[in-house]
Protein backbone atom coordinates (compact mmCIF):
# COMPACT_ATOMS: atom_id res chain seq x y z
CA UNK A 1 0.00 0.00 0.00
CA UNK A 2 1.03 3.62 -0.52
CA UNK A 3 -0.43 6.52 1.42
CA UNK A 4 -1.37 10.02 0.29
CA UNK A 5 0.13 12.80 2.41
CA UNK A 6 -2.55 15.36 1.56
CA UNK A 7 -4.23 16.10 4.93
CA UNK A 8 -7.52 16.82 3.15
CA UNK A 9 -7.60 13.59 1.16
CA UNK A 10 -10.76 11.60 1.90
CA UNK A 11 -9.31 8.21 0.88
CA UNK A 12 -5.51 8.31 1.26
CA UNK A 13 -4.86 4.56 0.77
CA UNK A 14 -3.52 3.68 -2.68
CA UNK A 15 -2.09 0.64 -4.52
CA UNK A 16 1.70 0.20 -4.05
CA UNK A 17 2.76 1.16 -7.58
CA UNK A 18 0.59 4.28 -7.92
CA UNK A 19 2.26 7.58 -8.76
CA UNK A 20 -0.77 9.76 -8.07
CA UNK A 21 -3.50 9.47 -5.46
CA UNK A 22 -6.62 7.95 -6.99
CA UNK A 23 -8.78 10.01 -4.64
CA UNK A 24 -7.35 13.55 -4.71
CA UNK A 25 -4.87 13.29 -7.59
CA UNK A 26 -1.88 14.44 -5.53
CA UNK A 27 1.67 13.14 -6.03
CA UNK A 28 2.41 10.21 -3.73
CA UNK A 29 6.21 10.52 -3.62
CA UNK A 30 7.94 13.34 -1.83
CA UNK A 31 10.71 14.72 -4.02
CA UNK A 32 10.05 11.71 -6.29
CA UNK A 33 11.88 9.64 -3.68
CA UNK A 34 10.06 9.03 -0.38
CA UNK A 35 6.85 6.96 -0.54
CA UNK A 36 4.65 6.85 2.57
CA UNK A 37 3.15 3.40 3.19
CA UNK A 38 1.25 3.78 6.46
CA UNK A 39 0.58 6.34 9.21
CA UNK A 40 2.25 5.51 12.52
CA UNK A 41 1.42 8.50 14.70
CA UNK A 42 -0.09 11.94 15.08
CA UNK A 43 0.64 14.66 17.61
CA UNK A 44 -0.11 18.29 18.16
CA UNK A 45 2.43 19.47 15.59
CA UNK A 46 2.24 16.88 12.85
CA UNK A 47 1.78 13.41 11.47
CA UNK A 48 4.30 10.57 11.19
CA UNK A 49 4.45 7.93 8.46
CA UNK A 50 6.44 4.81 7.79
CA UNK A 51 7.91 5.24 4.31
CA UNK A 52 10.27 3.77 1.72
CA UNK A 53 13.36 5.50 0.35
CA UNK A 54 13.07 4.50 -3.30
CA UNK A 55 16.36 6.15 -4.32
CA UNK A 56 18.41 3.46 -2.59
CA UNK A 57 18.81 0.01 -4.18
CA UNK A 58 17.64 -1.82 -1.04
CA UNK A 59 14.63 0.51 -0.67
CA UNK A 60 15.01 0.78 3.11
CA UNK A 61 12.28 2.01 5.40
CA UNK A 62 12.44 5.54 6.76
CA UNK A 63 10.13 7.87 8.70
CA UNK A 64 8.39 10.92 7.26
CA UNK A 65 7.29 13.61 9.72
CA UNK A 66 4.83 16.07 8.22
CA UNK A 67 4.24 19.44 9.86
CA UNK A 68 0.48 19.58 10.38
CA UNK A 69 -0.27 21.58 13.54
CA UNK A 70 -3.49 20.91 15.43
CA UNK A 71 -3.45 24.28 17.19
CA UNK A 72 -5.63 27.36 17.11
CA UNK A 73 -4.45 30.93 16.56
CA UNK A 74 -1.70 32.51 14.51
CA UNK A 75 0.79 32.73 17.38
CA UNK A 76 0.37 29.07 18.30
CA UNK A 77 0.78 27.97 14.68
CA UNK A 78 3.89 30.12 14.31
CA UNK A 79 5.35 28.65 17.49
CA UNK A 80 4.61 25.14 16.23
CA UNK A 81 6.38 25.89 12.94
CA UNK A 82 9.41 27.18 14.85
CA UNK A 83 9.53 23.99 16.91
CA UNK A 84 9.37 21.80 13.82
CA UNK A 85 12.26 23.70 12.23
CA UNK A 86 14.07 23.54 15.56
CA UNK A 87 13.76 19.75 15.57
CA UNK A 88 15.39 19.56 12.14
CA UNK A 89 18.22 21.81 13.30
CA UNK A 90 18.77 19.75 16.44
CA UNK A 91 18.79 16.43 14.59
CA UNK A 92 21.30 17.75 12.07
CA UNK A 93 23.74 18.47 14.89
CA UNK A 94 23.06 15.38 16.99
CA UNK A 95 25.15 12.54 15.59
CA UNK A 96 24.86 9.69 18.08
CA UNK A 97 24.11 5.97 17.67
CA UNK A 98 21.04 6.05 19.98
CA UNK A 99 19.40 8.97 18.16
CA UNK A 100 17.72 8.34 14.77
CA UNK A 101 19.66 9.94 11.93
CA UNK A 102 18.19 12.91 10.06
CA UNK A 103 18.07 12.01 6.36
CA UNK A 104 16.39 15.12 4.92
CA UNK A 105 14.51 18.31 5.74
CA UNK A 106 12.64 20.33 3.12
CA UNK A 107 9.61 22.47 2.33
CA UNK A 108 7.41 21.40 -0.58
CA UNK A 109 5.98 23.89 -3.12
CA UNK A 110 2.66 23.89 -1.24
CA UNK A 111 4.50 25.25 1.82
CA UNK A 112 4.50 22.11 3.97
CA UNK A 113 7.54 21.18 6.04
CA UNK A 114 8.85 17.61 6.15
CA UNK A 115 11.49 15.71 8.08
CA UNK A 116 12.80 12.34 6.91
CA UNK A 117 14.53 10.20 9.53
CA UNK A 118 16.06 6.79 10.02
CA UNK A 119 13.39 4.18 10.77
CA UNK A 120 13.84 2.32 14.06
CA UNK A 121 12.01 -1.00 13.88
CA UNK A 122 10.71 -1.57 17.39
CA UNK A 123 8.25 -0.59 20.11
CA UNK A 124 8.26 2.43 22.36
CA UNK A 125 8.42 1.76 26.08
CA UNK A 126 4.85 2.91 26.63
CA UNK A 127 3.63 0.13 24.34
CA UNK A 128 6.07 -2.30 25.93
CA UNK A 129 4.62 -1.50 29.36
CA UNK A 130 1.08 -2.04 28.10
CA UNK A 131 1.92 -5.39 26.48
CA UNK A 132 4.43 -6.87 28.94
CA UNK A 133 3.61 -5.21 32.24
CA UNK A 134 5.83 -3.54 34.80
CA UNK A 135 9.58 -3.39 34.28
CA UNK A 136 11.92 -5.30 36.57
CA UNK A 137 14.52 -3.48 38.63
CA UNK A 138 17.26 -4.79 36.30
CA UNK A 139 15.45 -3.40 33.26
CA UNK A 140 15.19 0.00 34.94
CA UNK A 141 18.94 -0.03 35.56
CA UNK A 142 19.48 -1.03 31.92
CA UNK A 143 17.26 1.86 30.81
CA UNK A 144 19.18 4.37 32.90
CA UNK A 145 22.56 3.14 31.67
CA UNK A 146 21.36 3.36 28.06
CA UNK A 147 19.67 6.77 28.13
CA UNK A 148 21.92 8.68 30.56
CA UNK A 149 24.95 8.58 28.17
CA UNK A 150 22.68 9.84 25.38
CA UNK A 151 21.58 12.73 27.60
CA UNK A 152 25.19 13.43 28.52
CA UNK A 153 25.93 13.74 24.81
CA UNK A 154 23.05 16.08 23.92
CA UNK A 155 23.61 18.21 27.02
CA UNK A 156 27.31 18.50 26.15
CA UNK A 157 26.26 19.96 22.80
CA UNK A 158 23.99 22.43 24.57
CA UNK A 159 20.61 20.80 23.87
CA UNK A 160 17.79 19.98 26.29
CA UNK A 161 15.25 17.40 25.10
CA UNK A 162 12.33 18.65 27.28
CA UNK A 163 9.96 15.76 26.50
CA UNK A 164 11.45 12.53 27.80
CA UNK A 165 8.77 9.92 28.45
CA UNK A 166 8.21 6.20 27.72
CA UNK A 167 6.59 7.02 24.38
CA UNK A 168 9.78 8.77 23.22
CA UNK A 169 12.12 5.85 23.91
CA UNK A 170 12.08 3.02 21.36
CA UNK A 171 13.58 -0.43 21.86
CA UNK A 172 14.88 -1.73 18.53
CA UNK A 173 13.59 -5.24 17.90
CA UNK A 174 16.67 -6.93 16.50
CA UNK A 175 19.16 -6.11 19.26
CA UNK A 176 17.27 -4.42 22.11
CA UNK A 177 19.08 -1.07 21.73
CA UNK A 178 17.21 1.92 23.16
CA UNK A 179 16.72 5.04 21.03
CA UNK A 180 15.72 8.50 22.19
CA UNK A 181 13.31 10.07 19.69
CA UNK A 182 11.13 13.15 19.09
CA UNK A 183 13.35 16.20 19.39
CA UNK A 184 10.49 18.52 18.50
CA UNK A 185 10.63 20.10 21.95
CA UNK A 186 14.44 20.27 22.11
CA UNK A 187 15.98 23.67 22.77
CA UNK A 188 19.41 25.20 23.12
CA UNK A 189 20.44 25.72 26.71
CA UNK A 190 21.77 29.21 27.46
CA UNK A 191 23.98 30.53 30.20
CA UNK A 192 21.48 33.27 30.96
CA UNK A 193 18.47 32.57 33.19
CA UNK A 194 15.67 31.57 30.81
CA UNK A 195 12.67 33.81 30.56
CA UNK A 196 9.22 32.45 31.20
CA UNK A 197 7.85 31.05 28.00
CA UNK A 198 5.53 28.56 26.45
CA UNK A 199 5.09 25.38 28.48
CA UNK A 200 6.54 22.46 26.52
CA UNK A 201 6.54 18.85 27.64
CA UNK A 202 4.15 16.19 28.88
CA UNK A 203 2.68 17.16 32.30
CA UNK A 204 2.95 13.64 33.71
CA UNK A 205 6.69 13.52 33.14
CA UNK A 206 7.99 17.10 32.89
CA UNK A 207 9.91 18.86 35.64
CA UNK A 208 8.07 21.50 37.71
CA UNK A 209 10.11 24.36 36.27
CA UNK A 210 8.94 23.48 32.76
CA UNK A 211 5.46 24.56 33.81
CA UNK A 212 6.92 28.07 34.08
CA UNK A 213 8.62 27.89 30.70
CA UNK A 214 12.06 27.09 32.12
CA UNK A 215 14.24 24.08 31.34
CA UNK A 216 17.69 22.91 32.41
CA UNK A 217 19.76 19.79 31.80
CA UNK A 218 18.47 18.52 35.14
CA UNK A 219 14.93 18.89 33.78
CA UNK A 220 15.66 16.00 31.42
CA UNK A 221 17.02 13.98 34.33
CA UNK A 222 13.79 14.60 36.24
CA UNK A 223 11.74 13.38 33.28
CA UNK A 224 13.91 10.29 32.94
CA UNK A 225 13.37 9.57 36.62
CA UNK A 226 9.60 9.91 36.21
CA UNK A 227 9.77 7.62 33.18
CA UNK A 228 11.54 5.00 35.30
CA UNK A 229 8.91 5.24 38.04
CA UNK A 230 6.10 4.84 35.52
CA UNK A 231 7.71 1.74 34.01
CA UNK A 232 8.69 0.29 37.39
CA UNK A 233 5.26 0.68 39.01
CA UNK A 234 2.92 0.63 36.03
CA UNK A 235 1.00 3.67 37.28
CA UNK A 236 1.02 7.36 36.44
CA UNK A 237 3.86 9.27 38.15
CA UNK A 238 1.28 11.80 39.31
CA UNK A 239 -0.22 9.07 41.50
CA UNK A 240 3.11 8.39 43.20
CA UNK A 241 3.28 11.63 45.18
CA UNK A 242 1.37 12.08 48.44
CA UNK A 243 0.35 15.75 48.67
CA UNK A 244 -0.77 15.39 52.28
CA UNK A 245 2.68 14.16 53.34
CA UNK A 246 4.57 16.13 50.66
CA UNK A 247 6.67 13.11 49.70
CA UNK A 248 7.06 10.45 47.04
CA UNK A 249 5.46 7.10 47.83
CA UNK A 250 6.58 5.18 44.74
CA UNK A 251 8.25 2.43 46.81
CA UNK A 252 4.79 1.32 47.95
CA UNK A 253 4.01 0.30 44.36
CA UNK A 254 7.22 -1.70 43.76
CA UNK A 255 6.71 -5.42 44.33
CA UNK A 256 10.35 -6.62 44.15
CA UNK A 257 13.38 -5.73 46.21
CA UNK A 258 15.24 -2.69 44.92
CA UNK A 259 18.87 -1.96 45.70
CA UNK A 260 19.16 0.98 48.13
CA UNK A 261 21.59 2.82 45.85
CA UNK A 262 19.32 2.51 42.81
CA UNK A 263 16.40 3.78 44.89
CA UNK A 264 18.58 6.67 46.04
CA UNK A 265 19.46 7.52 42.44
CA UNK A 266 15.78 7.53 41.43
CA UNK A 267 14.91 9.72 44.42
CA UNK A 268 17.56 12.26 43.48
CA UNK A 269 16.49 12.34 39.83
CA UNK A 270 12.95 13.38 40.79
CA UNK A 271 13.70 16.09 43.34
CA UNK A 272 11.28 19.03 42.79
CA UNK A 273 14.03 21.67 43.03
CA UNK A 274 16.57 21.58 40.17
CA UNK A 275 19.42 22.35 42.57
CA UNK A 276 18.67 19.17 44.55
CA UNK A 277 18.96 16.86 41.53
CA UNK A 278 22.04 15.56 39.77
CA UNK A 279 23.37 18.47 37.76
CA UNK A 280 24.75 16.29 34.97
CA UNK A 281 23.93 12.93 33.44
CA UNK A 282 27.52 11.87 34.09
CA UNK A 283 27.03 12.41 37.83
CA UNK A 284 23.96 10.18 37.74
CA UNK A 285 25.88 7.48 35.85
CA UNK A 286 28.70 7.55 38.41
CA UNK A 287 26.23 7.29 41.28
CA UNK A 288 24.42 4.42 39.60
CA UNK A 289 27.62 2.47 39.04
CA UNK A 290 29.22 3.06 42.42
CA UNK A 291 27.22 0.45 44.33
CA UNK A 292 28.18 -2.31 41.87
CA UNK A 293 31.89 -1.99 42.67
CA UNK A 294 32.96 -4.94 44.80
CA UNK A 295 35.42 -7.80 44.74
CA UNK A 296 34.43 -11.43 45.29
CA UNK A 297 36.55 -14.59 45.19
CA UNK A 298 36.60 -16.98 42.26
CA UNK A 299 34.74 -20.23 42.95
CA UNK A 300 34.72 -23.10 40.44
CA UNK A 301 31.30 -24.52 39.61
CA UNK A 302 31.29 -26.87 36.59
CA UNK A 303 28.07 -27.65 34.77
CA UNK A 304 27.06 -31.02 33.22
CA UNK A 305 27.26 -31.42 29.41
CA UNK A 306 23.67 -31.55 28.06
CA UNK A 307 22.74 -31.37 24.37
CA UNK A 308 21.63 -27.80 25.03
CA UNK A 309 23.76 -26.35 27.78
CA UNK A 310 22.03 -23.91 30.14
CA UNK A 311 23.72 -21.24 32.19
CA UNK A 312 23.74 -22.41 35.80
CA UNK A 313 25.52 -20.56 38.61
CA UNK A 314 29.12 -20.35 37.47
CA UNK A 315 32.47 -18.99 38.69
CA UNK A 316 32.16 -15.27 39.23
CA UNK A 317 34.81 -12.56 39.43
CA UNK A 318 33.87 -9.00 40.36
CA UNK A 319 36.11 -6.24 39.06
CA UNK A 320 36.24 -2.62 40.21
CA UNK A 321 36.02 -0.13 37.35
CA UNK A 322 37.59 2.98 38.82
CA UNK A 323 41.36 2.72 39.37
CA UNK A 324 43.87 1.69 36.72
CA UNK A 325 46.29 -0.59 38.50
CA UNK A 326 48.80 -1.50 35.81
CA UNK A 327 48.99 1.88 34.08
CA UNK A 328 47.93 1.08 30.57
CA UNK A 329 49.01 4.03 28.45
CA UNK A 330 47.39 5.32 25.27
CA UNK A 331 50.30 5.71 22.84
CA UNK A 332 48.34 6.87 19.83
CA UNK A 333 44.86 8.09 18.94
CA UNK A 334 43.37 8.00 15.43
CA UNK A 335 40.82 10.80 15.04
CA UNK A 336 40.10 10.52 11.33
CA UNK A 337 36.58 9.05 11.28
CA UNK A 338 33.70 11.54 11.23
CA UNK A 339 31.07 9.08 12.46
CA UNK A 340 30.91 6.63 15.39
CA UNK A 341 33.15 3.61 14.79
CA UNK A 342 31.47 0.21 15.00
CA UNK A 343 34.14 -2.30 14.06
CA UNK A 344 37.85 -3.15 13.75
CA UNK A 345 39.94 -6.02 12.41
CA UNK A 346 43.69 -6.55 12.39
CA UNK A 347 45.78 -8.39 9.80
CA UNK A 348 47.38 -11.60 11.05
CA UNK A 349 50.87 -10.04 10.93
CA UNK A 350 49.70 -6.99 12.90
CA UNK A 351 50.76 -4.50 10.22
CA UNK A 352 47.36 -3.38 8.96
CA UNK A 353 44.16 -2.33 10.68
CA UNK A 354 40.72 -1.92 9.11
CA UNK A 355 37.91 0.16 10.63
CA UNK A 356 34.28 0.86 9.71
CA UNK A 357 31.93 3.58 10.88
CA UNK A 358 28.28 4.53 11.14
CA UNK A 359 28.55 6.79 8.10
CA UNK A 360 29.47 3.94 5.76
CA UNK A 361 33.22 4.61 5.54
CA UNK A 362 35.83 1.86 5.72
CA UNK A 363 39.47 2.80 6.29
CA UNK A 364 42.65 0.72 6.09
CA UNK A 365 45.63 1.77 8.18
CA UNK A 366 49.32 0.91 8.10
CA UNK A 367 50.18 0.92 11.80
CA UNK A 368 53.76 2.00 11.13
CA UNK A 369 52.45 5.25 9.54
CA UNK A 370 49.10 5.82 11.27
CA UNK A 371 48.62 9.53 10.54
CA UNK A 372 46.17 8.85 7.67
CA UNK A 373 44.52 5.72 6.27
CA UNK A 374 46.31 4.26 3.26
CA UNK A 375 43.01 3.24 1.64
CA UNK A 376 39.33 4.00 2.06
CA UNK A 377 35.98 3.17 0.56
CA UNK A 378 32.40 4.22 1.24
CA UNK A 379 29.12 2.30 1.07
CA UNK A 380 26.80 5.16 2.14
CA UNK A 381 25.32 2.82 4.75
CA UNK A 382 26.42 2.20 8.33
CA UNK A 383 29.18 -0.41 8.51
CA UNK A 384 28.62 -2.95 11.29
CA UNK A 385 31.51 -5.35 10.65
CA UNK A 386 34.80 -5.51 8.74
CA UNK A 387 37.30 -8.32 8.19
CA UNK A 388 40.73 -8.83 6.61
CA UNK A 389 41.48 -12.17 4.94
CA UNK A 390 44.40 -14.18 6.41
CA UNK A 391 46.78 -13.38 3.52
CA UNK A 392 45.43 -9.82 3.23
CA UNK A 393 44.31 -10.36 -0.36
CA UNK A 394 40.73 -9.32 0.41
CA UNK A 395 38.74 -7.16 2.79
CA UNK A 396 35.04 -7.54 3.57
CA UNK A 397 32.33 -5.47 5.21
CA UNK A 398 28.74 -5.95 6.32
CA UNK A 399 26.37 -3.01 6.43
CA UNK A 400 22.97 -1.57 7.20
CA UNK A 401 21.97 -1.97 3.55
CA UNK A 402 21.70 -5.77 3.99
CA UNK A 403 24.81 -6.17 1.89
CA UNK A 404 28.16 -7.89 2.19
CA UNK A 405 30.95 -6.27 0.19
CA UNK A 406 34.06 -8.21 -0.77
CA UNK A 407 36.96 -6.21 -2.19
CA UNK A 408 40.06 -7.79 -3.67
CA UNK A 409 43.41 -6.04 -3.86
CA UNK A 410 46.72 -6.81 -5.47
CA UNK A 411 48.81 -4.23 -3.61
CA UNK A 412 48.50 -1.93 -0.61
CA UNK A 413 51.13 0.78 -0.96
CA UNK A 414 50.02 2.88 -3.93
CA UNK A 415 46.26 3.26 -3.83
CA UNK A 416 44.05 5.71 -1.95
CA UNK A 417 40.59 4.55 -2.94
CA UNK A 418 39.89 0.81 -2.82
CA UNK A 419 37.67 0.28 -5.86
CA UNK A 420 38.91 -2.59 -7.97
CA UNK A 421 37.29 -6.02 -8.12
CA UNK A 422 34.29 -5.18 -5.98
CA UNK A 423 31.76 -7.92 -5.29
CA UNK A 424 28.39 -7.02 -3.76
CA UNK A 425 27.15 -10.19 -2.10
CA UNK A 426 23.38 -9.87 -1.93
CA UNK A 427 21.45 -12.46 0.02
CA UNK A 428 20.59 -11.15 3.46
CA UNK A 429 17.16 -9.71 4.27
CA UNK A 430 18.29 -7.52 7.16
CA UNK A 431 21.26 -5.62 8.58
CA UNK A 432 24.54 -7.55 8.30
CA UNK A 433 26.12 -7.42 11.75
CA UNK A 434 29.14 -9.68 11.32
CA UNK A 435 31.54 -10.93 8.61
CA UNK A 436 34.43 -13.37 9.16
CA UNK A 437 36.97 -15.07 6.88
CA UNK A 438 37.82 -18.75 7.35
CA UNK A 439 41.44 -19.50 8.37
CA UNK A 440 42.35 -20.42 4.77
CA UNK A 441 40.52 -17.38 3.35
CA UNK A 442 38.40 -19.49 1.00
CA UNK A 443 35.10 -18.86 2.81
CA UNK A 444 33.49 -15.66 4.05
CA UNK A 445 30.76 -16.09 6.67
CA UNK A 446 28.16 -13.37 7.23
CA UNK A 447 25.29 -13.07 9.70
CA UNK A 448 22.72 -10.50 10.68
CA UNK A 449 19.20 -9.45 11.48
CA UNK A 450 17.57 -12.07 9.24
CA UNK A 451 18.84 -14.74 11.70
CA UNK A 452 20.72 -16.59 8.97
CA UNK A 453 24.40 -17.32 8.42
CA UNK A 454 25.54 -17.33 4.82
CA UNK A 455 28.77 -18.92 3.63
CA UNK A 456 30.32 -17.36 0.51
CA UNK A 457 33.00 -18.61 -1.85
CA UNK A 458 35.57 -15.80 -1.81
CA UNK A 459 36.82 -16.66 -5.32
CA UNK A 460 33.42 -16.56 -7.03
CA UNK A 461 31.37 -14.41 -4.64
CA UNK A 462 28.63 -17.05 -4.75
CA UNK A 463 26.69 -18.46 -1.80
CA UNK A 464 27.90 -21.94 -0.85
CA UNK A 465 25.05 -22.59 1.57
CA UNK A 466 23.02 -21.04 4.38
CA UNK A 467 22.82 -22.05 8.05
CA UNK A 468 19.48 -21.64 9.83
CA UNK A 469 18.97 -22.03 13.56
CA UNK A 470 19.21 -18.75 15.42
CA UNK A 471 15.88 -17.36 16.63
CA UNK A 472 17.05 -13.73 16.63
CA UNK A 473 19.78 -11.61 15.01
CA UNK A 474 23.24 -13.12 14.56
CA UNK A 475 25.64 -10.65 16.16
CA UNK A 476 29.03 -12.42 16.37
CA UNK A 477 30.96 -15.31 14.79
CA UNK A 478 34.37 -16.98 14.98
CA UNK A 479 35.97 -19.84 13.03
CA UNK A 480 37.88 -22.53 14.90
CA UNK A 481 41.50 -22.83 13.77
CA UNK A 482 40.84 -25.96 11.67
CA UNK A 483 38.25 -24.05 9.62
CA UNK A 484 35.76 -26.90 9.96
CA UNK A 485 33.64 -25.46 12.78
CA UNK A 486 31.99 -22.06 12.92
CA UNK A 487 30.81 -20.59 16.23
CA UNK A 488 28.00 -18.02 16.25
CA UNK A 489 26.06 -16.03 18.84
CA UNK A 490 23.38 -13.39 18.91
CA UNK A 491 20.26 -11.77 20.25
CA UNK A 492 18.67 -15.12 21.12
CA UNK A 493 21.32 -15.36 23.87
CA UNK A 494 22.74 -18.62 22.54
CA UNK A 495 26.14 -19.77 21.29
CA UNK A 496 25.92 -22.27 18.44
CA UNK A 497 28.53 -24.60 16.95
CA UNK A 498 28.22 -25.51 13.26
CA UNK A 499 29.88 -28.43 11.43
CA UNK A 500 30.72 -26.87 8.06
CA UNK A 501 31.69 -30.15 6.40
CA UNK A 502 28.31 -31.72 7.11
CA UNK A 503 26.36 -28.43 7.10
CA UNK A 504 24.71 -29.12 10.43
CA UNK A 505 24.31 -27.70 13.92
CA UNK A 506 26.49 -29.55 16.42
CA UNK A 507 25.58 -27.90 19.69
CA UNK A 508 23.62 -25.03 21.22
CA UNK A 509 24.56 -23.33 24.49
CA UNK A 510 22.08 -21.09 26.26
CA UNK A 511 24.73 -18.74 27.55
CA UNK A 512 23.66 -15.23 28.59
CA UNK A 513 20.45 -13.59 29.77
CA UNK A 514 20.58 -10.85 27.11
CA UNK A 515 21.97 -10.29 23.60
CA UNK A 516 25.47 -11.65 22.96
CA UNK A 517 27.35 -8.96 21.05
CA UNK A 518 30.86 -10.37 20.87
CA UNK A 519 32.85 -13.60 20.58
CA UNK A 520 36.59 -14.23 20.73
CA UNK A 521 38.49 -17.50 20.40
CA UNK A 522 42.03 -18.40 21.41
CA UNK A 523 44.61 -19.29 18.75
CA UNK A 524 44.49 -22.96 19.74
CA UNK A 525 40.66 -22.90 19.72
CA UNK A 526 40.51 -24.16 23.30
CA UNK A 527 38.96 -21.06 24.88
CA UNK A 528 35.95 -19.07 23.71
CA UNK A 529 34.94 -15.74 25.21
CA UNK A 530 31.50 -14.11 24.93
CA UNK A 531 30.26 -10.66 25.95
CA UNK A 532 26.66 -9.57 26.43
CA UNK A 533 24.42 -6.65 27.26
CA UNK A 534 23.73 -8.51 30.52
CA UNK A 535 27.06 -6.88 31.57
CA UNK A 536 28.94 -10.18 31.86
CA UNK A 537 31.79 -11.94 30.10
CA UNK A 538 31.71 -15.74 29.93
CA UNK A 539 34.79 -17.92 29.48
CA UNK A 540 34.38 -21.45 28.16
CA UNK A 541 37.01 -24.19 27.94
CA UNK A 542 35.99 -26.03 24.78
CA UNK A 543 35.80 -29.78 25.18
CA UNK A 544 34.63 -29.44 28.78
CA UNK A 545 31.41 -28.36 30.44
CA UNK A 546 33.17 -25.81 32.64
CA UNK A 547 32.58 -22.11 32.17
CA UNK A 548 33.23 -19.00 34.23
CA UNK A 549 31.22 -15.79 34.40
CA UNK A 550 33.20 -12.57 34.87
CA UNK A 551 31.18 -9.75 36.38
CA UNK A 552 32.34 -6.20 36.92
CA UNK A 553 31.15 -4.17 33.97
CA UNK A 554 28.54 -1.59 34.87
CA UNK A 555 27.09 -1.55 31.35
CA UNK A 556 26.55 -3.93 28.46
CA UNK A 557 29.65 -5.67 27.08
CA UNK A 558 29.98 -5.00 23.35
CA UNK A 559 33.49 -6.30 22.58
CA UNK A 560 35.87 -9.02 23.77
CA UNK A 561 39.34 -10.25 22.82
CA UNK A 562 41.92 -12.77 24.01
CA UNK A 563 45.67 -12.23 23.77
CA UNK A 564 47.81 -14.29 21.34
CA UNK A 565 49.32 -16.29 24.23
CA UNK A 566 45.81 -16.95 25.63
CA UNK A 567 46.84 -15.43 28.96
CA UNK A 568 44.74 -12.25 29.00
CA UNK A 569 41.10 -11.47 28.26
CA UNK A 570 39.96 -7.94 27.38
CA UNK A 571 36.38 -6.68 27.33
CA UNK A 572 34.86 -3.31 26.42
CA UNK A 573 31.48 -1.94 27.43
CA UNK A 574 28.93 0.72 26.55
CA UNK A 575 30.23 3.08 29.23
CA UNK A 576 33.69 3.22 27.61
CA UNK A 577 35.43 1.02 30.18
CA UNK A 578 37.95 -1.71 29.29
CA UNK A 579 38.41 -4.55 31.77
CA UNK A 580 41.33 -6.98 31.68
CA UNK A 581 41.28 -10.47 33.19
CA UNK A 582 43.75 -13.31 33.79
CA UNK A 583 42.52 -16.11 31.52
CA UNK A 584 43.90 -18.81 33.85
CA UNK A 585 42.78 -17.58 37.26
CA UNK A 586 39.80 -15.52 35.99
CA UNK A 587 40.94 -12.76 38.36
CA UNK A 588 40.90 -9.10 37.43
CA UNK A 589 44.12 -7.56 36.12
CA UNK A 590 43.12 -4.01 35.32
CA UNK A 591 40.28 -1.67 34.47
CA UNK A 592 40.41 1.75 32.85
CA UNK A 593 38.23 4.35 31.13
CA UNK A 594 39.34 3.90 27.54
CA UNK A 595 36.75 6.16 25.87
CA UNK A 596 33.93 8.49 26.95
CA UNK A 597 31.51 6.39 24.90
CA UNK A 598 30.89 2.74 24.00
CA UNK A 599 33.90 0.52 23.21
CA UNK A 600 32.49 -1.18 20.12
CA UNK A 601 35.57 -3.15 19.12
CA UNK A 602 38.71 -4.38 20.82
CA UNK A 603 41.65 -6.38 19.40
CA UNK A 604 45.04 -7.56 20.66
CA UNK A 605 48.11 -6.96 18.52
CA UNK A 606 50.04 -10.19 17.74
CA UNK A 607 52.85 -8.92 19.98
CA UNK A 608 50.46 -9.32 22.90
CA UNK A 609 51.23 -6.25 25.02
CA UNK A 610 49.33 -3.88 22.74
CA UNK A 611 45.57 -3.41 22.71
CA UNK A 612 43.56 -1.47 20.12
CA UNK A 613 40.09 -0.07 20.86
CA UNK A 614 37.46 1.73 18.78
CA UNK A 615 34.50 3.69 20.04
CA UNK A 616 31.36 5.61 19.23
CA UNK A 617 33.42 8.70 20.15
CA UNK A 618 34.93 8.33 16.61
CA UNK A 619 38.39 7.51 17.97
CA UNK A 620 40.69 4.50 17.64
CA UNK A 621 43.25 4.17 20.43
CA UNK A 622 46.40 2.08 20.79
CA UNK A 623 47.18 1.04 24.38
CA UNK A 624 50.31 -0.50 25.86
CA UNK A 625 50.98 -1.84 29.33
CA UNK A 626 53.77 0.19 30.89
UniProtKB/TrEMBL annotation:
Give a yes or no for keyword ATP-binding in this entry. yes
According to UniProt, the name of this protein is Serine/threonine protein kinase
Q: Which domain of life is it from?
A: Bacteria
Q: Which Gene3D superfamilies match?
A: Transferase(Phosphotransferase) domain 1 (1.10.510.10), YVTN repeat-like/Quinoprotein amine dehydrogenase (2.130.10.10)
Q: Where is the Protein kinase domain?
A: 34-299
Q: Which organism is it from?
A: Chamaesiphon polymorphus CCALA 037
Q: Which PANTHER family match?
A: PRE-MRNA PROCESSING FACTOR 4, WD40 REPEAT PROTEIN
Where does each WD repeat begin and end?
Answer: 334-368, 425-466, 467-508, 509-539, 550-591, 592-626
The UniProt record lists the keyword Transferase: yes
Give residues annotated as binding ATP: 65
CDD domains on file: STKc_PknB_like, WD40
Gene Ontology molecular function: any one: protein serine/threonine kinase activity
Which Gene Ontology BP annotations are present? mRNA splicing, via spliceosome
Q: Keywords, A to Z?
A: ATP-binding, Kinase, Nucleotide-binding, Repeat, Serine/threonine-protein kinase, Transferase, WD repeat
